[in-house]
Amino acid sequence: MNKQQSDYGDFEEIQDESPKxxxxxxxxxxxxxxxxxxxxxxxxxxxxxxxxxxxxVKTTDKKTRNCRVPGRFSRKFWLRPxxxxxxxxxxxxxxxxxxxxxxxxxxxxxxxxxGFLNNLEREF
Length: 124
Known about the structure:
- By secondary structure, this protein is of the alpha+beta class.
- It is built from three helices and five strands.
- It has a domain of 80 residues: CATH 2.40.50.140.
- The chain has a five-stranded mixed β-barrel with strand order 1-2-3-5-4.
- A hairpin with a 4-residue loop joins strand 2 and strand 3.
């Protein structure tokens, strides 16, 4: 009786020839999906908190808008100066808008890498 038969019975050992994933790979090698503004929306940076649900936001079209956080997002967004957000201007008043989305730190780095925040960074 040969050694292979005694270890595995009547079955032959199958050698896996596929390459094993490296454990050393980091998250940065994988593509990350980032929410981009739709038509009529802008990326902005929070300049200051005005009280209540209102903030002053500098947007990529070089305007400073008085933006509010709608009630459905009031518990979800905790905005501080320096946070990046997507705003949607009001149709009747272009100087005001609603905050629609708040970016996380890993999403901000992706936006900077893609060049979406170049206009905002030059201003500050």
